[in-house]
Amino acid sequence: MQRYAQKELVRDLVRCITDDICNKIVAGTIPKEWDGHELRCLLAEKFEDAAQGTEIQRHPNCGRARDYRNTVLVNNL
Prior knowledge:
The chain has 4 helices and no strands. The chain has helices at about 5-25, 35-50, 55-60, 65-75. The two termini are about 20 Å apart. The chain has one domain. By secondary structure, it is mostly helical. α1 packs across α2.
């Protein structure tokens, strides 16, 4: 994947999740008393949900998943 396409994918994913949560804040579906603790957990869950369909998540013992974890570890990502 080209670098510009990587950056665009990351921006689109983050923007989609951010817009969804911000819209829920504006609509009043997220409680006013929620602070950084709850909002961080909600963000983490939304990103986790976004990753569920990936081959790495569906097949955590496949070669691609092992290569991914190794690259994250070696490159301190």
